[in-house]
Design brief:
The protein is α+β, with helices and mostly antiparallel strands. It is about 25% helix and about 25% strand. The chain contains 8 helices and 16 strands. The strands form 5 sheets. A 5-stranded antiparallel β-sheet has the order 6-7-12-10-11. A 4-stranded mixed β-sheet has the order 1-2-5-3, with no helix packed on it. A hairpin with a 5-residue loop joins strand 10 and strand 11. It is globular.
């Protein structure tokens, strides 16, 4: 693969396991960490159009398969994590952590508190329309800056992204570099207190100290008839997993967490195959017991086998 010159860092055959929360996954053919938006734009413009590109965030909601990822994996870093606040409008770089954006916004009297307990970065939050406590990224989204696969920059609106439950229509090969959000006003102290309560509730009900990737499956409720995301529906993924008898189920060192059965967990030494196989077993059991087809919320990318094993 012919690689353009860059100001950032290019690493060939870079293992990705250390970059994901589940600590699994084979190597990327190439990992690119751009210095800034111009570096990324120039790189994509010069890169052979046939080379696939995958933008990864902080790896919080991701399984990289054991065979690794063909093409170029792009990971945004320090040059993409700025946060600017003007009134109730917050512009955040794609690499800015959701929790950090929520805290900074709260200090400025802007209510983006729902982001506080969402693992990951703003780029991932937009791509997956992340949400909790009945609020979603789509509810506060104004626009996003992206660099398209051909290196051109574009501004995308909510209409462009077609937000749906835990998904958006980000163009193939596009890399999201920043998002502009607009939240309601709030008292900074009240917002801080609310986030503290949210964190306490999360720590009581979720295995925050275990090696997980957040929620494994989407809640079966999906989108309501009004076209709005609705995760307050009483039918939760953990409930149908429990009903199928799969809380605590294991494949190798992959476990459906005993504390919260919708958290797929690497209990130590699990492979990506173990984790994905357990997830598929859960889906099969849930369908057999309830007729419900669970949909993955965790993104799974890459090949099952290394290139030299194919």
């Amino acid at each position: 693969m012919q690689l353009p010159e860059v100001r950032g860092t290019l690493t060939q055959n870079r293992p990705l396991d250390s970059l994901t929360w589940l600590r699994v996954g084979g190597p990327a053919d190439v990992l690119f960490q751009p210095a800034d938006a111009d570096d990324l734009s120039d790189f994509l413009r010069a890169l052979d159009a046939e080379v696939p590109v995958f933008a990864m965030g902080v790896g919080s909601n991701l399984i990289v398969r054991d065979g690794g990822v063909r093409g170029v994996v792009i990971r945004l870093g320090r040059g993409f994590n700025g946060i600017e606040i003007d009134g109730t409008t917050v512009k955040a770089g794609a690499a800015a952590l959701d929790a950090h954006v929520a805290r900074k916004a709260a200090e400025a009297g802007v209510d983006l508190t729902f982001l506080r307990t969402i693992p990951g970065s703003i780029g991932g939050a937009v791509r997956m329309n992340a949400g909790c406590y009945g609020s979603y990224t789509a509810d506060v989204f104004q626009s996003a800056e992206v660099i398209l696969r051909d290196g051109t920059r574009a501004t995308l609106t909510a209409d462009d992204l077609q937000f749906a439950y835990r998904s958006s229509a980000l163009p193939e090969g596009a890399v999201l570099i920043s998002a502009t959000l607009k939240g309601p006003e709030g008292d900074p102290e009240a917002l801080k207190s609310r986030m503290e309560q949210q964190l306490a509730k999360r720590d009581e009900t979720q295995p925050t100290k275990d090696r997980t990737a957040g929620s494994t499956f989407r809640n079966p409720a999906g989108f309501s008839s009004t076209g709005r995301a609705d995760d307050t529906h009483e039918l939760k993924a953990w409930k149908v997993i429990d009903d199928a008898g799969m809380r605590g189920a294991k494949v190798g060192q992959a476990v459906m967490n005993e504390m919260h059965s919708n958290f797929l967990t690497n209990a130590g030494g699990a492979s990506a195959k173990d984790l994905e196989d357990l997830g598929e077993l859960v889906r099969k059991k849930v369908y057999a017991t309830s007729g419900i087809t669970l949909e993955w919320e965790i993104m799974r990318v890459g090949d099952h086998k290394l290139k030299n094993q194919e």
